[in-house]
Write a structure and sequence with these properties.
This protein is α+β, with helices and mostly antiparallel strands. It has three helices and seven strands; from the N terminus they run H-H-E-E-E-E-E-H-E-E. The protein is elongated and about 65 Å long.
Length: 143
């Protein structure tokens, strides 16, 4: 408990030290809350789907999307030098599937499968359902 007390006292001291301490204190609190929320989201998502058994059902294609190949650039610091890094993303074929009234999910498929289906096509879907959210997560689709 003493470490929590010391952290609390440090934050109060920072907030009283106008202006720099207050600004740093507010940023520290904001970053801490963001990190805490991110960790909570990762844990929640993991608990929602990890260990769930797949089930098989019937799904219906509700939309299709082709994403053409493209390149993105990001920078990364190596020492004190900012180095641009390019990433190539190949063509992607994505279908949105509605599953047995359980909800919808998107899944990437190959070009041949994408061309073989149209909106309204019924598919066999292997999926799992989230423990808490009830949202489906598609593992595989087949005709």
């Amino acid at each position: 408990m003493t470490i929590l007390k010391e952290i609390g006292e440090t934050i109060v001291w920072m907030l009283k030290d106008w202006p720099m301490g207050t600004i740093i204190g507010i940023l520290l609190i904001g970053v801490s809350l963001f990190v805490l929320a991110l960790v909570g989201w990762v844990i929640f998502t993991g608990l929602d789907f990890i260990g769930r058994e797949n089930q098989t059902g019937i799904g219906r294609v509700i939309s299709k999307e082709f994403i053409p190949a493209h390149t993105t650039t990001s920078t990364m610091m190596i020492g004190r030098v900012s180095v641009p890094t390019t990433h190539h993303h190949p063509d992607a074929w994505v279908i949105q599937v509605e599953i047995d009234g359980s909800g919808t999910d998107s899944v990437s498929v190959d070009e041949k499968f994408y061309d073989a289906v149209t909106e309204g096509t019924q598919l066999s879907v292997e999926y799992s359902t989230g423990r808490f959210t009830g949202n489906p997560s598609i593992a595989a689709v087949s005709m």
